Structure prediction request, 562 residues.
Amino acid sequence: MQQFTQNICNFAVMRRKAIQIVSIIFMITLMLLWSKTGYAGSQPHTFSVWKTFDSEKLLNTSRHYANTPSMSDSALLCASMLTERYSKQLSEDEKKIIVRGYTVKAYVYLFRYYDLSRAYESLLRASAICQEIHYELSTLYMDYGHLFSSIGEQGGGNDALRKALYYIKKAFHTALAEKNYNTLNTAFGNAISIAWELNQPHSLDKEWNIFRKLKNNDKPEYTKFNLLYYEAYQQIQKGNLTAAIALFDKQSKMMPDDDSHVRYTAVGLFNMAKIQQQMKEYDAALINLHKAEALATRYGMKDVSIQIYYEIWQVVRLMGDGQAAEKYHSKYLSAKEEMLNYQQVAGLKELSFMDNLRKQNDRIAEERTEKMTIQIAASILLLIVVLVSGFAIILARKNRQLSDSNEALYNKVQEMISTVDVMPVEDKNIKYKDSRLNEAEKTAIYMKACEVMDNSNEILEMDFSIRRLAELAGTNYRNMSQVINEKAHCNFNSFLNKYRIRQACKMMNDAQKYGNYTIEGYSTSVGFKSRNTFVTSFKRITGLTPSEYLRINRSKNSDRKQ
Prediction:
């Protein structure tokens, strides 16, 4: 198995190198052809226009596009053109504008493309420039807060939320110094949400005393929203949940129905539903969640949709509606998968644009002669044809070998599914030399453990532990740990994962029932908390990745139907 895995890795490396070589040669050919045909004349009109803008105008243009959801691509491209202007020789004022350009990119990545890694990259670059010129910017701190808040919501835990609260409070005080009341309002509202999540009721006392005394008439609806929010938060701390619901209800009805206010309306509905769920008023909670769901769908707020789907799934599950729970669990998983794809597309768009931008800036002023260009292009294209043909033959052979090997592994997995070897293997382990168990007792415990693993659905729950297995097998933790170690020659996690992967394979074989599941869907269904852990365990146990297994399975099912 190790040799086979190594062969796959070697083949994958060779294939990547082949593709890279062919791609580089092909790009050189295209660049030579474009240099003759006049690339400058074919560049998009917007590039030509933006290129004439000074940095301030380019920043304002990118901000305008960023606030219009349908213009996210333009916002990103415009901001990227601005940030590409950075150099050490720029004035301090110009560098401050570049920093703001990076915050526009971070905003678009966070709230339009939902790409946390690229947002973080933009924020780091902005921070480096700020450190260089000793500059603080409230929107930069705010974007860090949004980033870590999103990480916390996606499973990063309280550490990420505490970081988010730290940066948001810095944004609040920096915005106060800047007299940037828009960011100050945003910071205070977000701080309330995170303090609530962390159960830190007094962490905002200082900010509250400042906020309630401010005379800010710039955007009074945001100030009123946050005043209601904090008051509701205080009512929750006092246990006055009905009063808190009434305040959240006011929040959900006070904002205009447009792009710039819809998230606030969704927050009011979502918070009201959370309290109603806490009070076990599930029907009322479901009504508000469906309202928030409709808003998220209408305005394309994919990140909000994921939260709403998850919350609806929890509520209908508590209501005992299995069909609705399965529906919204599926929608939740599909939305997460869709967001991942959306992030990848966004990354490709930026790479494509930056490639075009560099070509514009670096293109040669004088064109080469037509005859030389055609000769070089023809020679390179001929070389490409020869290389591609050769690589195609090699790849076809390797693919055939790989396919045969994968099918052999698939057949072994089917044998594993139908017959699981539970016979214990004798092992005198000095680690348990003080154990009072004799061999007959060890064998009995091991056989009982295997029976539980074969027949109990509890092993598919994420929190299933060795202590629970010991309880079901009628023994204690130490005895169970010893028996698994000596008889199965592995630790409990490896022992458990073998049975979970076996169940996942059974589910994958049942396309009629589970055919619409994603890889993450299979992962969570058999008890894995992480998609990566599931894929790694699946590969280690079966020799195939889940995607490879599903592909072979579908092929065999198709052959049977024919």
